[in-house]
Amino acid sequence: MIPMTLEEIARVVGASLHDVRDARALVTAPAAVDSREVVPGGLFAATAGARVDGHDYAAAAVAGGAVAVLAARPVGVPALVVGDVQIALGLLARHVLGHISPVVIGVTGSVGKTTTKDLLAQVLERQAATIATDRSFNNELGLPLTVLRADAATRYLVLEMGAGRKGDLRYLTGLAPPQVGLVLNVGTAHVERMGGGLADVAEAKGELVEAVAADGFALLNADDPYVMGMAGRTRARILLYGRSGKAAVRAEDVRMDGRARAAFELVTPSGRAPVELDLIGEHQVSNALAAAAVATALGLGVAEIADGLNAARRRSTGRLEIVERSDGITIVNDAYNANPESMRAGLRAAKALAGARRTVAVLGAMGQQAEASRARHAEIGRLVADLRFDVLIAVGAGDPLAMAQAAQSSDQGVAVHTVEDVTGAIRLATALLEPGDVVLVKASSEIGLSACARALAGA
């Protein structure tokens, strides 16, 4: 955060000052929407959620070091009162970005955004000061919070940009216009909100490359026809990446080791170099290529890119996070979120990791799948059977039952169980697990199966 006085911030966001003794008090640290994450010199943004109202924590935030609270009403402590806290955060982020000069990199896609962002950040921060989205703070609140962590020393600003509806990316890119726009893929995540079809998802995701200026770069996945269809929607220079031979940044000689980690020869316009990823799953090759494409567009050489990818480690929890128990049981926590594409990738990664070991899938619902939801869950059930998982525990009523029924009817020998909720999943999985098992836990975040993964990992 660049230092700003409270009166300067008030002018930028159109706020009135309440309970402020010194309007020239400086905010020198980033903003936070969680009072527990406030740092001295920062700003606390009091947002009202479905279960918690940040205004109730204003005093605690100031006691924890916040200079003031960005709020929708007076809160009895120093506050900048605005009509809409979310909009005010965006205005403040846009102002700060206008006073510093990082290269803004926007990353979007239906799956893989967070992992790709984490890989890219680890490549770039070896070269210069880099700020990247924390966790998956990729929406209209998270993006401003990321921007407000940047300062004059920041060279690269890596912004994960999520889109739940058409127009979301147009709003986010309006706050932080990207010099580089990266589109990973088009899948069924949020398809219900976007219109119901993949073409609707592509229309929404393509808003990112529309926002890139003519002297910037649009990085498109050559392996995804919907992403390739965005080429006509951008004025920017186009750089293709993927496993296709037509990609300028591509992977050759892809292979997997005994721990389900991919290795390949990275090919870029500057040459070739070997890459050995520390992340499990063959789908990580695409994520690594996407990061490599951004780095290539920014002028990094192939050796620098490969070194960064080889040194990169998993940073975000709940995404193919592996915990090895003392009894030889391996928990694969992929419960941060789920859609058909990520569910398939997670199942294949866990099966590859297991090799000849016994495999257990604890799976819950995939949200926002529109009218095709039941059929898509059934497809996942059939895949569980086709991959020869030994046990399936389907968690919840409705669509997970379709998953269970499809796995059962495939007659591939999978032992199928159904439970009502997360508590039931923990209880049953704990009873069924045997030493040496590999257990995948996955569902959309609202199901709460991350609690099951943590319980099993700590057992």
TrEMBL record:
Residues 33-77 form the Mur ligase N-terminal catalytic domain. Its EC number is 6.3.2.10. ATP binds at residues 109-115. Keywords: ATP-binding, Cell cycle, Cell division, Cell shape, Cell wall biogenesis/degradation, Cytoplasm, Ligase, Nucleotide-binding, Peptidoglycan synthesis. The keyword Oxidoreductase does not apply. Its main location: cytoplasm. InterPro entries: Mur-like_cat_sf (IPR036565), Mur_ligase_C (IPR004101), Mur_ligase_C_dom_sf (IPR036615), Mur_ligase_cen (IPR013221), Mur_ligase_N (IPR000713), MurCDEF_CellWall_CoF430Synth (IPR051046), MurE/MurF_N (IPR035911), UDP-N-AcMur_synth (IPR005863). One of its GO terms (molecular function) is UDP-N-acetylmuramoylalanyl-D-glutamyl-2,6-diaminopimelate-D-alanyl-D-alanine ligase activity. GO terms for cellular component: cytoplasm. It comes from the Bacteria. It is an enzyme of class 6 (ligase). It catalyses: D-alanyl-D-alanine + UDP-N-acetyl-alpha-D-muramoyl-L-alanyl-gamma-D-glutamyl-meso-2,6-diaminopimelate + ATP = UDP-N-acetyl-alpha-D-muramoyl-L-alanyl-gamma-D-glutamyl-meso-2,6-diaminopimeloyl-D-alanyl-D-alanine + ADP + phosphate + H(+). Residues 107-295 form the Mur ligase central domain. The keyword Nucleotide-binding applies. Pathway: Cell wall biogenesis; peptidoglycan biosynthesis. It is found in: Cytoplasm. SUPFAM superfamilies: MurD-like peptide ligases, catalytic domain, MurD-like peptide ligases, peptide-binding domain, MurE/MurF N-terminal domain. Belongs to the MurCDEF family. MurF subfamily. NCBIfam families: murF (TIGR01143). PANTHER family: UDP-N-ACETYLMURAMOYL-TRIPEPTIDE--D-ALANYL-D-ALANINE LIGASE (PTHR43024). Involved in cell wall formation. Catalyzes the final step in the synthesis of UDP-N-acetylmuramoyl-pentapeptide, the precursor of murein. This is UDP-N-acetylmuramoyl-tripeptide--D-alanyl-D-alanine ligase. It comes from Nonomuraea polychroma.
